[in-house]
């Protein structure tokens, strides 16, 4: 890929040092409403909403948070000034913002509207932010969180105080969001769920891949997902660009922006994260960093030294001499890729995989792909499907996987109906030197964190 061309500035805009564009406004103060810089965030315990709260608090906003599961007492948001709205009187606020998990009839959200607040979803307010500041959005069905953090960390290490917001925290950044310097771009993880990324107006897009995912939003499967990505890319301006990774389909016809294809990494380039998928992600990171003007030495160092994010092969401690690891993988493609990466990292150790399907609709739609994805597990402990946003009439049980799993491979295999039974099986099956790898996007992570000690 030729790294020399850069997007041209918008008419009447100032060029940034890296060839970006300074849009009019530039600060979150431009979003202030009838009641000044004030907002109620309903669902503030979620990762994206926590990041949004941090950005607003850093900009001097008064932010009230409501959630059934509030951030813990030691969360840095409280030190930044987050105020809990726990059912008392809510002062008038300019914005009432709800996460995708919060319904429109939520009492706290309705209270904010009754006081004159402007309603918005998380995605809608984030879209407004992308109109204030040139934004690089990282898009794709898999790998967005790691890639967003990777790019942001690499740029900050080179002195570029970019803003960023991602769905989980990179160990080397320490926070999941930070506003940074107004004069630098915002690096943002986008999300295709509920077509929320259609609210964004990116100046530059890093496109990882496109896969059949979120069947509750895209019952038509991959063609419907691809169409949603086409519409998203159409929002990138002609002066912008799309940097497509090695796995990304050719959607160049959907956008007027410059389309650039990332090259595969040379064989002798070292990547600090294990797994073939991370090497492909690293190729996209390298291409993006070149677009920001980093030289080869800086790019190679960034690929070598990045150490990943929480809940991505995160080592939690040991139990009975076995290493306990938690990972967010919940789609069959992610499960298979994570197991391959784990085998690469701990090649000489036996694996007990604790897997919990996430969402009955995903489990139902992708059922024939889960058993093959779990082939690399030496022992397999299944937890019941974590239901979320599922219609009551759709019933699904992880036990439905057992016949195919048994047919594919002879190994210890069990379904645990409660945490106590699951812990007993972990103790029986995972001896010293083993790896207990807990996979899923539901409360399997809570279970994993009870194991060390």
Entry summary:
This protein is an alpha/beta fold. Helices cover 30% and strands 18% of the residues.
DSSP helical segment count:
14
Strand order of the largest sheet: 10-9-11-8-12-13-14
Low-confidence stretches: 1-26
The counted number of beta strands is 20
Label the overall shape. globular
What's the gyration radius in Å?
Answer: 22 Å
Proper CATH architecture of the largest domain: 3-Layer(aba) Sandwich
Measure the end-to-end span.
49 Å
Helix content: 25-40%
Looking at CATH, the homologous superfamily of the largest domain is Mur-like, catalytic domain
CATH topology of the largest domain: UDP-N-acetylmuramoyl-L-alanine:D-glutamate ligase
Layout of secondary structure:
Layout: E1 14-15, E2 21-22, E3 38-42, H1 47-58, E4 62-66, H2 76-80, E5 83-84, E6 95-98, H3 107-114, E7 118-121, H4 122-130, E8 135-139, H5 144-157, E9 163-165, E10 177-178, E11 186-189, E12 204-207, H6 222-234, E13 241-244, E14 258-261, H7 276-291, H8 296-305, E15 314-319, E16 322-327, H9 332-345, E17 351-355, H10 360-365, H11 367-373, E18 379-383, H12 402-408, E19 413-416, H13 419-429, E20 435-439, H14 444-449
Parallel strand pairs: 3-4, 3-6, 4-5, 6-7, 8-11, 8-12, 9-11, 12-13, 13-14, 16-20, 17-18, 17-20, 18-19
Antiparallel strand pairs: 1-2, 9-10, 15-16
């Amino acid at each position: 890929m030729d790294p020399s061309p850069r997007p041209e500035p918008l008419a009447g805009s100032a060029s940034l040092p890296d060839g970006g564009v300074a849009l009019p406004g530039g600060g979150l103060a431009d979003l202030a409403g009838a009641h000044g810089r004030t907002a109620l965030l309903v669902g503030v315990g979620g990762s994206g909403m926590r990041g949004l709260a941090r950005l607003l608090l850093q900009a001097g906003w008064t932010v009230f948070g409501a959630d059934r599961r509030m951030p813990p007492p030691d969360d840095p948001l409280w030190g930044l000034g987050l105020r809990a709205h726990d059912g008392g009187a809510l002062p008038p606020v300019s914005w009432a913002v709800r996460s995708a998990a919060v319904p429109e009839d939520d009492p706290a959200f309705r209270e904010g509207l009754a006081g004159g607040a402007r309603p918005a979803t998380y995605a809608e307010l984030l879209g407004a932010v992308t109109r204030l500041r040139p934004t690089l959005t990282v898009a794709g069905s898999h790998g967005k969180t790691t890639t967003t953090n990777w790019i942001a960390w690499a740029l900050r290490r080179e002195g570029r105080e970019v803003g960023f917001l991602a769905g989980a925290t990179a160990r080397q950044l320490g926070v999941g969001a930070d506003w940074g310097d107004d004069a630098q771009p915002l690096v943002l993880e986008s999300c295709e769920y509920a077509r929320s990324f259609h609210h964004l107006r990116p100046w530059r897009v890093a496109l990882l891949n496109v896969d059949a995912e979120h069947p509750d939003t895209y019952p038509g499967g991959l063609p419907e997902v691809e169409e949603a990505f086409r519409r998203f890319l159409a929002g990138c301006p002609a002066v912008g660009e799309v940097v497509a990774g090695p796995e990304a389909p050719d959607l160049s016809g959907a956008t007027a922006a410059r389309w650039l294809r990332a090259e595969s990494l040379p064989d002798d380039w070292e990547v600090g994260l294990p797994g073939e998928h991370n090497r492909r992600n690293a190729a996209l990171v390298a291409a993006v960093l070149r677009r920001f003007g980093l030289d080869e030495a800086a790019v190679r160092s960034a690929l070598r030294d990045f150490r990943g994010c929480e809940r991505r092969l995160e080592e939690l401690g040991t139990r009975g001499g076995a290493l306990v690891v938690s990972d967010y993988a919940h789609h069959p493609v992610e499960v298979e890729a994570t197991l391959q990466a784990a085998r690469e990292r701990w090649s000489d150790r036996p694996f007990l995989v604790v897997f919990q399907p996430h969402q009955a609709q995903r489990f139902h739609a992708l059922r024939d792909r889960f058993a093959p994805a779990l082939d690399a597990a030496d022992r397999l402990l299944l937890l019941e499907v974590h239901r979320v946003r599922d219609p009551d009439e759709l019933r699904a049980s992880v036990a439905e996987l057992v016949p195919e799993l048994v047919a594919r491979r002879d190994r210890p295999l069990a379904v645990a109906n409660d945490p106590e039974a699951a812990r007993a099986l972990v103790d029986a099956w995972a001896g010293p030197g083993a790896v207990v790898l807990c996979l899923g996007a539901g409360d399997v992570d809570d279970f994993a964190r009870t194991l060390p000690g």
